[in-house]
Write a structure and sequence with these properties.
- The structure holds two protein chains of two kinds.
- By secondary structure, chain A is mainly α.
- Helix content of chain A is about 80%, strand content about 0%.
- Chain A is built from 15 helices and no strands.
- The radius of gyration of chain A is 25 Å and the shape is flat.
- The longest helix of chain B has about 35 residues.
- Chain B is built from 15 helices and no strands.
- By secondary structure, chain B is mainly alpha-helical.
- In chain B, about 75% of the residues lie in helices and about 0% in strands.
- Chain B has two domains: about 60 residues; about 220 residues, MetI-like (MetI-like fold, Orthogonal Bundle), CATH 1.10.3720.
- Chains A and B meet through helix 1, helix 2, helix 4, helix 5 and helix 6 of A and helix 1, helix 4, helix 5, helix 6 and helix 8 of B.
Chain lengths: ~300, ~280
């Protein structure tokens, strides 16, 4: 405790000095955190509250219309499609990322330590390239008349796929790109967690005659449980709120069927100029994000307690 | 279980590990590789559909030369550099002192504020861009890189503060007690002890702030419509795709050049990069 240190030293000093020191300490602390408070308050909390206010206005922002924007949106078939697509996209992509990331981390953990750095370096590349730019590369690979992916499929005598032209394939394409971009992140997180599992536990399991599957089920997974849940929840937020991949790859098309909340909010709010309704669209993300944030926070707290213990 | 079968099992595990990693590496590196192949092709070779699109027969740098010669593209690059440098400096100036105060100078509400920092980290930019669009517009900063410098800290400050709290908390308490006994003030303590000792954390946070501001896409897309104020991400995506016939070679060359700075930073500072990435969850 910093307080303990500060108090132990000048014990002989008069009470007045100590009080002054404590006061100075809180003044310094306040000044040091002031810019942070300004960012959190002015650029996150205030805009979030402002978004709620905006979403209750009419299009010209002249009159209060209550929850009408939300009601209109829920009545709109396109928007119901957006809700469905956002959930489908986020859940499918996160599950795939988690599984692939777990698999790769495991494989990476199995090979000799010397080679791990190189492989890790190569596999993390998708995470390093700004997603808007790498998605451009994917877009070019999906391009209907020149598609290099279809060329590869043709080598294996698979018929050409209309990647971005047909709604279901467009949904799959968006998920493929997101999984490609995000799986390395899971891999790195899981690898760090795998490395933190004490070797003695595996030795004990081996002595008890545990099979590979039992080692995974009863040693690795329980030890990693917390990191897995934090990573999944965190990725769920980021994926749910994703914008760049959809914007570059499909821009919501074909027929608005690949829009997610973010891209639809952008289209309604910025491009069509209906700011209040756009704000309402993005606020639909809020309840889900709040629930996820609650669980993340609980996971972090539990983890802090584990480390502290 | 007999020794022989155990050995065979080990060997099999190693083989399956390498096979999975090779397949994964091919998949992970295929898109950037294909971007590079395209960027090295002439327009005629790109248009020619008879051969294998994944190889380049007559490599040329003319696409790179053309895109570097494009003043608009150089403008994007310059804007990105300006915004990123300012945001990184701003972020570190905000988050390092705040993290120090939050981890060492327990004060009224400090615990609460630390949680608040983490919560703001979980608020995505796509939730905030519409109200921020109004706010930035009200300040007259739409279509200006200054507007981006103003809002990017929402992307960088919470996470950087969060991991710096973790790094500072891992410094032994004896160190600040010794400093206090020597009569050092809080600011001296931060400057002389905490910043040097937590330097790996500061590097990791700086890399994070750099990567995030360089890759930011939602805010510039929403706030900037004038090409001369655009940073690279939105500039490459929106301005180079104009026209009926896409100049694919140039587009890919531009995207690769735009992605180069974070990739170079990553190549040289991979360990810090990874440390920053995992610190969020493991240091909490």
């Amino acid at each position: 405790m910093a307080d303990g240190g500060a108090m132990a030293a000048p014990r002989a000093a008069a009470g007045g000095t100590m009080q002054r020191m404590a006061r100075r300490k809180s003044t310094v602390a306040f000044l040091l955190t002031l810019p942070l408070l300004a960012v959190i308050g002015g650029l996150v909390a205030w805009p979030a509250a402002y978004a709620m206010y905006l979403s209750t206005l009419n299009r010209r922002m002249t009159a209060f219309i209550g929850l009408e924007n939300f009601a209109i949106l829920l009545d709109n078939e396109t928007f119901r499609g957006v809700i469905w697509q956002s959930c489908f996209f986020a859940i499918t992509a996160v599950v795939l990322k988690a599984l692939i990331g777990f698999w790769l981390a495991h494989m990476l953990h199995h090979i000799p330590t010397k080679g791990q750095r190189l492989w890790r370096g190569m596999l993390l590349v998708p995470w390093v390239i700004p997603p808007a730019l790498s998605t451009l590369g994917w877009w070019w690979m999906f391009e209907p008349s020149y598609s290099s992916l279809n060329w590869l499929l043709a080598v294996f005598a698979v018929p050409a796929v209309p990647w971005l032209g047909e709604p279901w394939w467009a949904r799959v394409s968006v998920i493929i790109v997101n999984v490609w971009y995000g799986a390395p992140f899971f891999m790195i997180m899981y690898l760090a967690a795998l490395k933190s599992v004490p070797e003695q536990l595996y030795e004990a399991a081996d002595i008890d005659g545990a099979t590979g599957w039992q080692r995974l089920r009863y040693v690795t997974l329980p030890m990693m449980r917390n990191i897995i849940s934090i990573t999944v929840l965190f990725s769920l937020i980021v994926t749910f709120a994703n914008y760049d991949i959809v914007r570059v790859l499909t821009n919501g098309g074909p027929r608005d069927l690949t829009h997610v909340f973010a891209s639809y909010a952008f289209q309604v709010g910025v491009l069509s100029g209906n700011i209040p309704r756009g704000a309402a669209v993005s606020l639909f993300m809020f309840p889900l994000l709040a629930v996820i944030a609650y669980f993340v926070l609980r996971g972090i707290n539990e983890r802090t307690k584990e480390i502290g213990a | 279980m007999r020794i022989g079968s155990l050995k065979a099992e080990r060997r099999w595990a190693l083989w399956s590990a390498y096979v999975s990693l090779i397949i994964a590496a091919i998949v992970m590196l295929a898109p950037p590789f294909y971007m590079l192949v395209t960027a090295l092709k002439t327009s005629a070779e790109i248009a020619d559909q008879s051969g294998n699109p994944w190889i380049v027969l007559n490599p040329t740098l003319e696409n790179f030369a053309a895109i570097i010669g494009n003043p608009m593209f150089r403008g994007f690059f310059w804007n990105s550099i300006q915004v990123t440098v300012l945001v990184v400096i701003l972020t570190m100036l905000i988050s390092v002192p705040a993290a120090f105060a939050l981890s060492r100078m327990r004060f009224y509400g400090s615990q609460w504020l630390a949680t608040g920092v983490f919560l703001t980290y979980l608020v995505p930019d796509t939730l905030l861009f519409i109200p921020l669009y109004q706010i930035v517009g009200g300040l007259g900063l739409l279509n200006s890189t200054w507007g981006l410098v103003l809002v990017y800290p929402t992307l960088t400050v919470p996470f950087c503060t969060w991991i710096m709290i973790g790094y500072f908390a891992s410094i032994p308490k004896e160190l600040d007690e010794a400093a206090l006994i020597d009569g050092a003030g809080w600011l001296q303590m931060l400057w002389r002890i905490f910043i040097p000792v937590a330097l790996p954390g500061i590097i990791a946070a700086t890399i994070f702030a750099f990567t995030v501001s360089w890759a930011a896409f939602v805010y510039p897309t929403a706030f900037i419509t004038r090409p001369d104020e655009m940073p690279l991400t939105i500039g490459v995506v929106s301005q180079l795709i104009r026209g009926d016939t896409f100049a694919w070679g140039q587009l890919m060359a531009g995207a690769l050049l735009a992605a180069l700075p974070p990739v170079v930073v990553y190549a040289f500072l991979m360990d810090y990069y990874v440390a920053g990435l995992t610190a969020g969850a493991t240091k909490g």
